[in-house]
Amino acid sequence: MSRDTGFSAGRVWAMLLRYLYLLRSSWPRTLELLYWPTLQMLIWGFMSQFLYVNSSYVFRAFGVLLAAVMLWDVLFRGQLGLSMSFLEEMWARNLGHLFVTPLRPYEWVLSLLTMSLIRVLLGIVPAALLAIPLYHYSIFSLGLPLVAFFAVLLVMGWALGMAICGLILRQGLGAEGLAWTVVFTISPISAVYYPVSILPGWLQHAAWALPSTYVFEGMRAVLFSGIFRTDYFFAAVALDIVYLALGAAIFLIAFHDARRRGALLQMGE
Amino acid sequence: MIEPAVKVENLVKRYPTAVAVDGISFTVRRGVTAALLGGNGAGKTTTLSILLGLLLPTGGRVRVFGEDMLRHRYRVLPRMNFSSPFVDLPHRLTVRQNLLIYARLYGLPRRRERIESLADDLQISAFLERPAGKLSAGQKTRVALAKALLNEPELLLLDEPTASLDPDTGDWVRGYLEAYRARTGATILMASHNMSEVERLCSEVMMMKAGRIVDRGSPQALIDRYGRTNLEEVFLHIARGPRTVLEPVQ
User: Fold this and answer.
1) Which of A8, A25, A103 sits opposite B92 (nearest CB)?
2) Min CA distance, B107 vs chain A (Å)?
């Protein structure tokens, strides 16, 4: 008699191990993880130093731009970290092998999410630590709200990543550019570096539909006023749940559709 | 009563512009080696993909070891495996890393011992630490076979198992598969258009053309039925014959 073993943490670990092996096998890729967040931090750090003496906005809180750039990277790297691990399978034409094993799609997704967290931490933490001696600014001074901001942005990155992976599953590797571009379309309305009130009225409605907007407004509230806006936090969490459900639905529908079209065996370069 | 290893009933796979599988039915008994034989586009790989759960059929039923593959494939996937020269293992990982990951996906105990034992059997020990992308075609085939045998499957599905291999390596692989089936009592179902391979390995053959099974039987029975001297001549007769005389055999 055959038995359905249900969820297996061992299978999730197996997939995670695969992505860790891949990461370890290429030092340029590992270096790239550290390179961009550090470079961003350097550019915005010097910019902040300049603006600190020339702008009342930055004078109110030195770290406002540095914190924004590092938190933005959590969203971007969270999405890209998930999409890159997914793309590794596509490039390797490995889906046909993976899904004749007992691996469930949701177990695969769990491993992609975990790998995304690892990639984010590998990229962001060194940049954040380097900012301390260079600019005498520590993002960790945000305290507990930093954990909340990090979590909301990471989950939003996962939601976007799953939706993008679903679109790539549907459209094939011709759509892989989405993994690098989609997140930047929401950057202007996420109010990363400026308050949402700068945006035209009609665009503000769109901005408030993004969890990221609440995070960056909340970050400025902490830095300028020392207040953690719980109303912003709960709104962001609620939106995250909606986005995550949508992202997961798009991915799972695309996966089912790929099984219907026979794309799991054919997908690849 | 023991359920057959594979039972397919009225299987249909229709795409918007083509019918890949057109209402086929067949059974594969446990412990035999059977083949789906046919030219390119006959529907062999599509049928295997449906059996593996990689492709959803438009209609029909597929039962593996008595379980409905559409509803309960996770009950039987641990008892099956698959190998194809057209689906590579990830190139940048070493052979050992690849095998270790698949061993974990199948939840195998004593993974390292299992890999060492298979590596000895399949003569791949010398390149266990080499990236999978840097292997020759023959080495890749043996590694793919090692992956397919990790969980000692009761049902092994093979898509063109010796495609692009030199005759010596091809013969070695065929010998290994024969020995595996004899030792474990496993069922092997392969898609192939290598006639000598099918004649040597298979006791049951289903001849496919344009998505349908147009004849079936043992290799010798088919050769006798068509009055030919080998299976290749039977294949050519069927492949080149008019579609109208090739109705599915009930």
Assistant:
1) A25
2) 7
Please tell me the total count of domains within chain A: 1
CA B169 to CA B172: how far, in whole Å? Answer: 5
Give me the domain span that covers residue A82. 9-266
β-pairing, B155-159 vs B187-192, is parallel
Nearest chain A Cα to B46, which residue?
Answer: A262
Residue B96 in contact with residue B135, Cβ under 8 Å? no
pLDDT tops 50 at residue A186: yes
Contact state of A17 with B79 under an 8 Å Cβ cutoff: no
Tell me whether 0.85 is exceeded by the ipTM.
Answer: yes
Min Cα distance B104 → chain A (Å) is 6
Establish if A96 touches chain B: CB-CB under 8 angstroms: yes
A1 within some domain: no
* Residue-range domain boundaries for chain B: 6-86+153-245
Residue A4 falls within a domain, yes or no? no
| The total number of residues written for chain B in this structure | 250
Which residue numbers in chain B have pLDDT < 50? 244-250
Asked if B74 reaches chain A (Cβ–Cβ under 8 Å), the answer is yes
Domain annotation covers residue A3: no
For helices A64-91 and A144-171, the axis angle rounded to 10 degrees is 30
Chain A residue numbers with beta carbons less than 8 Å from the beta carbon of B88 are 92-94
Cβ contact, residue pair B102, A10, below 8 Å: no
- Tokens for A239, please give them: 């939106």
- Interacting residues of A133 by C-beta distance below 8 A, sequence separation 6+: none
As a whole number of angstroms, the distance between CA A14 and CA A98 comes to: 11
Residues of chain A found within 8 Å of residue B46, distances taken between Cβ atoms: 262
- pTM for the model stands at 0.88
pLDDT, averaged across chain A: 89
Report yes or no: B105 at the A interface, CB cutoff 8 Å: yes
| A82 within some domain | yes
The 8-class DSSP code of residue B66 comes to T
The CATH number that domain B6-86+153-245 falls under is 3.40.50.300
Cα–chain-centroid distance for residue B150?
16
Chain A's closest residue to B81, CA to CA, is A100
Q: B39-78: per-residue pLDDT in tens?
A: 888 999 899 999 999 999 999 999 999 999 989 999 999 9
CB-based contact, B147 to chain A, within 8 Å:
yes
